């Protein structure tokens, strides 16, 4: 075991003994409730106003749409006041302004101009939800051109209410420019900023806790020295054999030298995946797909990613021990997991995040050939529950090869819950959303995935039993 692995294992061990304060102890080194983080300074009211949760309109865009609506209603009301101030019969006045329209005497065209802006802007920015300034720039330019022409064409000496009518023209001019400025300087920048940096989260009973942790992630990462940083590789997790070379040709692939932007990308992806995996864990719309002894597999349909699977069971081991094996023992995964041919820890990003590489065995009687997977993993403890999320990722040293079809893992991971009053027993939850990039009937693929989940759980329990027996 390397010194780095020893420190990481000590970090997990410290959770079981509150009297030991390890540098990796979350309750001391990066409490989600007490320690301020960099993200606390990044997230502001402007950033929150630009986020779009669950496909709903952002607050700043909704305000823009209300502003456009106010533009039309305000101009209409002002025009109506101008008509009423003439002292004529309302029907006769409206008939002169609308039915007998004349550009020199009627101001109804300004109302139509405001209505046209309202229809165009609402359609493009509320219905189509575009994020570009081109439409409003054209709308504002045409509005201004018409208003300037109206000033020259209108017969001002014969106007009965020149002050109100001047204010009507100026009001339309100012509001059209105000809409353009607000969209270009507020809506687009805030939404762009939110899409880059804000992690959307659904409201739930425990969501504020996990969200606080995610927002604190940047504060717990070790700063890189200089422009590049290469984490130390674990010898037992090293890749042997080039993806493009014969399997019997030994080769050691060193971790890639990551730039600061690459590190930040992996850390941000880990934070987003953690939130998404925890949200899946909390959902209550899972449907039982199959039961085998004390193991249950559930499914849920997602319109964006397809079918997601969840396995639940109980394992007679402490939560700490189980998470220790699942995260730190990834290099030995192929030794006890009959579904995995090879497994490697490729690169450590930080104390809680790494990149792994696995090659699966053939499945479905050879119908599904071996796939290789490059995964980003991240673990933490939230409210006493061990959470390890996982998602597909790219790595500079692991491009797709001709030897294996590249499989893709969607948001998933392991959740290990302690059972009250039973220190040597835990509830194990496994969530997966695989894409094997294969064209076979979906019902066959789903059946094989469920079968594989039962096999994995059986292998895991046998491995844990043997490992705990060795320790004893």
Any overview of this molecule?
Pfam families: MENTAL, START. The protein folds into two domains: 53-197, no CATH class; 202-238 and 254-471, 2-Layer Sandwich (Alpha-D-Glucose-1,6-Bisphosphate, Chain A, domain 4). It is 47% helix and 20% strand. The protein contains 15 helices and 16 strands. It has helices at 3-16, 26-29, 38-42, 45-49, 59-84, 90-99, 108-127, 134-153, 162-197, 207-215, 217-220, 260-282, 319-328, 333-336, 442-471, and strands at residues 228-229, 239-240, 252-253, 258-259, 287-292, 295-302, 306-315, 340-350, 353-360, 371-382, 385-392, 405-406, 408-409, 412-419, 422-432, 434-435. Helix 5 packs antiparallel against helix 7 and helix 8 (134-153) runs antiparallel to helix 9. The radius of gyration is 31 Å and the shape is elongated.
Number of helical segments with 4 or more residues: 15
Look at the structure and give the CATH class of the largest domain: Alpha Beta
CATH architecture of the largest domain: 2-Layer Sandwich
Taking the sheet with the most strands, its summary is:
10 strands, mixed
Number of domains: 2
Q: Which topology of the largest domain does CATH recognise? A: Alpha-D-Glucose-1,6-Bisphosphate, Chain A, domain 4
| Uncertain ranges | 11-43, 198-207, 218-245
- The general outline is elongated
The CATH H-level superfamily of the largest domain is START domain
Radius of gyration: 31 Å
Overall strand count: 16
Beta-strand content: 15-25%
Share of helix, binned: 40-55%
| Overall pLDDT score | 79
The helix/strand class is: alpha+beta
Give the termini distance in whole angstroms: 20 Å
